[in-house]
Design a protein that fits this description.
Elements (H helix, E strand, L loop, with lengths): L18 E9 L26 E8 L5 E7 L6 H15 L6 E5 L20 H27 L2 E11 L3 E3 L1 E2 L6 E2 L10 E8 L5 E8 L16 H13 L4 E6 L5 E3 L5 H20 L3 E3 L3 E11 L5 H7 L5 H15 L6 E12 L3 E6 L2 E2 L1 H11 L4 E4 L8 E2 L2 H6 L2 H5 L1 H4 L9 H16 L3
Parallel strand pairs: 3-4, 10-11, 16-18, 17-19
Antiparallel strand pairs: 1-2, 1-5, 2-3, 5-9, 5-13, 6-12, 7-8, 9-10, 14-15, 15-16
Helix pairs in contact: 1-2, 3-4, 5-6
Length: 446
């Protein structure tokens, strides 16, 4: 493992130490060629590395000893089995309850396949699957150790919060006579907010910057085979170069139906990353709101039912020529044969973390479309509220009712890659929002 500590080199205005904070990081770059996740057209393992991938942790402790740890990873997503295993080990080894551990992934499409995530996307050889399984096991060890390192680094700190904007995310659900397709939809809903959490020493030296954006990490498309964090990887590099010694952490927000625009060139990933880094630096130089108060956290899961499906639906797909759809149909028929067809996703995670009266984080599982962030901000107030997707479990897209009714990739077509039977029922948005209200009530934000 390669660790980098939290050096205190960037001078800014002094601030009282309302909290303790600890920062740690570990390189999680694959050590050998491995299949990259996110695009089904890839047909071979990775070929080199553009820049390292990282897992980074920010531990925060309030004046009463309450703790929260936020972990960010330059990965497509952490499946439930891996997040639950990490959470259980962190609780045992570091005495941090599950509600107080946030696991977020950037959803880069030039990072490795994570075992048991997007299962039907590729038809892998045994040695290719072995490389993926070995990577996941090592990753688990790294993240558990990482959390401990951040907790060991706790020292007096001040927190402050601000917002910027970046305009390269564009809604990708393009209407057409044949229905909604992946493309560009300038009038479609987007969320260009760039929330920034600054962590400083009592002397005002910058230690960490946690920032987010609601956009797919898909500037680099399926023809790219080099490992990288895409635009968010370049953004973190840019912030760290501008502020030597700081740890920059990217939080993926509700960007499931947003793509970088333009895309498909390496220089565009660098360009978007530079634009985001520049906006984070601008916010850090500006007037930020001091964060104070007790840390509260809540975590729960909710069942999300699927629309009805039948054995005959999957038998009909066996005659198709699309290999992932055929693999998916075989998997679903096996479930029917074993009398365990899925009627619902049973453990969809919803989490809230509240920092006194000034800041709250809602962390939702899956690839969450932007409608959820816009609705949650409208219901609870946008000021001091961050709504993340890709947190704690990435099991599928999470469409809003609007997206579900319109159809398209985020509503239905993507489910074959996640190994789920088909679209969710029309209850999905109500169930997710019901759980959001419950966790927000428990942390004191109404």
């Amino acid at each position: 493992m390669r660790w980098i500590g939290s050096f205190l080199l960037f001078a800014c205005g002094g601030q009282a130490a309302d909290y303790k904070a600890g920062v740690a990081r570990v390189a999680i770059t694959p050590e050998k060629p491995i299949y990259l996740s996110g695009y089904a057209n890839r047909n071979r393992p990775s070929e080199g590395v553009l820049h390292d991938l990282w897992a980074k942790a920010l531990a925060i402790e309030d004046s009463r000893g309450g703790r929260v740890v936020i972990v960010t990873t330059d990965l497509i997503g952490l499946p439930r089995w891996l997040s639950e295993s990490i959470g259980a080990r962190v609780a045992k080894q570091h005495r941090l309850e599950r509600a107080r551990l946030v696991l977020n992934s950037s959803h880069t499409h030039t990072g490795p396949v994570v075992a048991r995530n997007l299962n039907t996307m590729f038809d892998l050889k045994p040695e290719e699957q072995r490389a993926i399984d070995e990577y996941a096991q090592k990753l688990q060890e790294q993240v558990v150790t990482l959390v401990g390192a951040a907790l060991q680094d706790l020292q007096p700190a001040g927190l402050s919060f601000g917002n910027g904007r970046a305009g390269f995310a564009m809604n990708r659900r393009q209407p057409s006579p044949q229905g909604v397709r992946l493309g560009v939809n300038p009038p479609g809903p987007s969320d260009h907010d760039v929330p920034v959490l600054q962590v400083t020493s009592p002397e005002g030296k910058l230690r960490a910057a946690l920032f987010g954006y609601a956009c797919h990490n898909t500037t680099l498309t399926g023809e790219f085979y080099q490992v990288s964090g895409d635009y968010s990887g370049f953004a973190q590099i840019g912030v760290e170069q501008a502020h030597p010694g700081v740890t920059a952490m990217f939080l993926a927000l509700c960007g499931a139906d947003q793509n970088p625009n333009p895309r498909s060139k390496l220089e565009l990933a660098e360009q978007h990353g530079a634009a985001l880094a520049a906006e984070v630096s601008r916010v850090l130089r500006g007037r930020l709101e001091r964060v104070q108060g007790r840390l509260r956290a809540a975590y729960q899961t909710v069942e999300l039912p699927f629309a009805p499906h039948t054995r005959e639906m999957f038998e009909a797909r066996l005659k198709e020529t699309n290999a992932p759809r055929v693999r998916h149909a075989k998997a679903m028929l096996q479930a029917y044969d074993e009398r365990r067809p899925l009627g619902a996703y049973a453990h969809y995670p919803v989490q809230a973390v509240h920092f006194g009266r000034h800041l709250a984080l809602v962390a939702l599982g899956g690839e969450v479309v932007v409608d959820y962030a816009l609705r949650i901000k409208k219901e609870f107030g946008a000021k001091g509220l961050v709504v993340a997707g890709y947190s704690n479990d990435v099991m599928s897209y999470i469409p809003s009712l609007r997206v579900l009714q319109e159809g398209g990739y985020e509503a239905d077509g993507s489910m074959i890659y996640y190994g789920l039977p088909g679209p969710y029922s029309q209850e999905v948005e109500d169930r997710v929002m019901g759980a959001v209200r419950q966790v927000m009530k428990r942390v004191g934000r109404r």
